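P.,

For your records, the input lines for the assembly:
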Amino acid sequence: MTDNEYRKMYDKDPRKAQTALFDEYLGYVYAIVYNKLRSCGSSEDIEECVGDVFSAVFISYDRSGSFDGDLKGLIGTIANRTAIQMYRKLVRHSDTVYIENETTELADTENVEENAERSVLKNTLLKLINSLGQPDSDIIIQKFYYNMNSKEIADKHSMSPASVRMRCSRALKKLKELLANEGYEMKEGNI
Amino acid sequence: MNDKKKIGFDILENSDINTIEEIGTGKMNIDKNARERMLKNTMNKYEAEKKRLGIAQDTTSENNENADSVTGVEVYERRRLPHFIYIGLCSAAAIALTIGSITMLNRRKPDAPEIQTPVAQVTSTAATTSTGISTTTASSKEAVTVIAAATETSAASAKDTTAATTTAADSSDKTGGDTETAAGNTPSDTTVSAAYTNPHTDRTDITQEELDAAAVRAVKQLINDNDGFKNPNVAQPDPTLGVMLRYAFYDVNGDSVPELFIRHNYALGNAYMYVYDGNDYVTARFNGHDMNGNETVQETVLSVVEALSADNTIGMMGHQGGSQSFILYMGDDNTITPLYEYTLYRSYKDGRLSEEYTYDGDLGKFGEFLDMYRSYGERELNWIEYDLNEN
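Structure tokens returned:
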């Protein structure tokens, strides 16, 4: 859906336009929010945040009468910011960490190094997962990143849950081998 | 010994949007019930927010399935003007306006001596210049240059008028930014202060750890710059509290990057508010007025600097019964504009002079300001104590 398409639809029927936009970008927004809140938020927190994002998007349109071109970019930015805000709120509420007790002397250089290392690890892991091919790469992501159970994955891929478990087990073994070749070891337990 | 680095799927968290797309945005399981829940939640939030902002259009009533349907409604079709008629009318209006303006200008008699236009040129963003009555503030990030030029008028009643032009240039060497002129002894009642451009960041990957580290750097710098901070004899701390410095994060303008507030309990000390520029917390500034009525660049440093309970507002209160106090508005891009300013001799509203008075010492005018200031109320922040012995 483009800015223009939304505007035309909105002029005829605002609620229909909003629902269409919601349906089109729900997966995108959910993925962004999930990525930020995966560790610290419950599924209710994630759903709450998704609601905040779409509400902000609709208000943004109501106030300016347009999305200024890049609709997907705008939604992505709002989702990112809203999720970060929610992350801070959740972290603040769950565990107040006093700065004196933390490693406050985090030098800029260390930060840059850490970010660079994380980026390399991310790219390596994604590259190796993609090298497993379809549908194994999707199954691995769904199982271990999105924490879906075998039945949910099976429904998505029109397979039986038993087949999903078997494929997942083989794919994970293969992924561990690939990681070992690159000099990494898969975390045990809740990976 | 196994020296391989451990890797888990948590490494994929807090990624940028490209990486999230690479992970896959359509792979998760959102069932029908979850979708319905989120849509309903979205619409509830949207309606509440719309009501709060006073956006009138009601999208719910138009398509409410339970609403009574209406049939046989007349169809109104707006007749459009043919294009050439529209162009012709516009042209005629433009010509009439031009002729009218010229005629008016020709007939107009000057009824007051014209004041020469103040000469003000700002060319440097790196150097700092100060002349006349003006003050100059400069930091490593911004260069602020103030040039004042005095001119005389020929009118009998005219006083010496000093004009000051202030240009704030940001770190990207932007020149010719917002320029404002304010009269010296006779403050302008028509000039509105332009918002000072404070640094801000569009980064979306800022972590709390990063902000914490930046806050501590700012606190340490502040302590290093102020010898008295750690010296109880000089600083006259409240004896019941001991020497104490505290800081707190609060996102005043809702841009998801919190501002930093620092205060301590020294009897004659100041409080501070900083904005995050993407790397560090830096002092925020705004265009306000000094006690002589001159427009100057002010810093968010005063006896009291606090987040107020109204959205996007900050309060600043001076020493000794508020010799100079402010209620400020902070925009999304960290620009700060005064809503109300109080000085000993003048008060301002939205950057315009609203009242001029003689200071009589009974603080009557300040009392009025204080009542309004209190009506905003201070916002409660989560303060973090800083151990001064660590520095």
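Two observations worth noting. Residues 208-390 of chain B form one domain. Chain B touches chain A through 65 residues (CB under 8 Å).

Regards
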